[in-house]
Amino acid sequence: MARWLKENSADSDVVVSTRARLARNRAATPFPHKIAGTPQAALVRQAAVDTFIGNGRDFQLMEMKNLSEVEKNRLVEQHVASKELCASEDGALVLSPDESISIMIMEEDHYRLQYLKGGFQPEEAYQVCKEMEHLLAKNVDYAFNNKLGYLTACPTNVGTGLRISVMLHLKGMALAGTVDQILNSLGQFGLTARGIYGEGSSPTADFYQISNQITLGIREEDVVKNIRQVVGRLIHQEREIRKLLYKNNQLEIEDRVLRAYGTLKHAKKLSSEEACQHLSTLALGISLGIINPCSQETIYNLIMDTMPAMLTAENQSVAQRDLARAELIRNTLN
Amino acid sequence: MARWLKENSADSDVVVSTRARLARNRAATPFPHKIAGTPQAALVRQAAVDTFIGNGRDFQLMEMKNLSEVEKNRLVEQHVASKELCASEDGALVLSPDESISIMIMEEDHYRLQYLKGGFQPEEAYQVCKEMEHLLAKNVDYAFNNKLGYLTACPTNVGTGLRISVMLHLKGMALAGTVDQILNSLGQFGLTARGIYGEGSSPTADFYQISNQITLGIREEDVVKNIRQVVGRLIHQEREIRKLLYKNNQLEIEDRVLRAYGTLKHAKKLSSEEACQHLSTLALGISLGIINPCSQETIYNLIMDTMPAMLTAENQSVAQRDLARAELIRNTLN
User: Which residues of A touch B (CB under 8 A)?
Assistant: First the structure.
């Protein structure tokens, strides 16, 4: 299980996780790409270390330059670090024991304060980020402009620096063929949809990340409220579509779910893509009560766990990974 | 289980069944198509009834005109009657309790004496037909020409009137892509290959019926001997190809077999074609020792049992049959 993912999350029939992050930068310090490898970068990191490491907390500091490719990929696939952070020469990560709290240091901004939790939890996710922001403020003067708000390296984050993302499994809408239309309509509510690995990534097995687009000229609390309302409606819609689909195509859906289960339980090797597709179908079946081999969270977790890097001992081949993936899934489902 | 198919048949890793039949006609009586619906047809039938019904035997007489379409289809799919017999207005069938002995009356010839047994048993199959021929000779003078031998409606059967057919599962050759080439070479040995429902039927999931082509100018015993030799070599070749394939593609084959098993064990609905394909793959897996959920005979039998007519209560739809087929297979494998 990804450490931050717990059983019995809120709305887990449709929602994998909620993530909040606040982008913050030190005042009077150039943005990360301008100070790579300089003493200023070291100062940026030191302020986070002084705040979060020790002081009665068992947070861990990881410096990217000390990690192997496999370790870095694992962090990306568990959604606790970005690819950009991994590529940053000064990049560092502060991580809580359950990996729900992560602070990316010297990524695009000096600090990215993040909280990740299973289920639909925008208020709590925001609240935890806010507490970290207050803590860090003891050691860092934030770059702030009275007119714009918090300053960030990329103008798309200026203002609140707040991004709340909800990862949704929109299998019903995908099967009904309405997912694109519905996701395109999110723009009018200030939200946007992306694949599960963020900007530019394509949707994997009907998992989508919905997040707020707007950070400027809006209060942080209103971002949270908007996510609660619009994503709440989306969750409701997805449930209705699933019920309708099942009512109108009961046999078809049951057959599809049970075949996916049969393949996952017996296949000797599984590619990441195929595993993801079948697990997605199985998650639908669990939510419809067709089958109950494990929790939704276990399925979501298997999807993350069976991504290439999670299975990679260094130099392991694609073929060996396909075997290890199938074995992990068989063992989990049996 | 088809009544004539028993567990632990000879060479059942490759061979489903052996069938022998002798075509015989009454002397001085026109062939069936010339006497349809006449008293002569009734005489033809009566001679067989007098010979085989009663007299301490519990053989059963079935008249085609009294059977429903579903009952007739079942006989065809269990290989105890032909479509031609079912369509004949005077058509009748004498059947032993285990359905291994069947005598088709007023099919293409007046009498077709047949014996059907699981595994590779050409000598025994021939012997049983020969005993029936002797019995029937008490009530019937056979149409016989000293130069040609036994006379039959179709010139391809003149001479011995003997056809021995062996149903083989040539999955290894099919996977290796050599099956066509090997089957085409059978002509030089006086043998021919067809699909599992005889002349003109196409191969189903790599099951083939191999039989002798020649009936004229040859001794019956030599037909049996030739089948033993050539088909015996074919069985050996098939085993070698399976072993080699498995050795060179172990993972691929195991994955394929286990996926077929997973689908058969879990699918909610299965078409006849898909079921047949997966059962064929599973049979290969059993012969290679990859998996052992049941005997080869059980698989062969499932293939016959899940043919459309075996599942048809009158007026049952295709969709209902697909459900019933999947259920039967799930229940058998569980």
Answer: 251, 254-255, 258-259, 261-269, 319, 323, 326
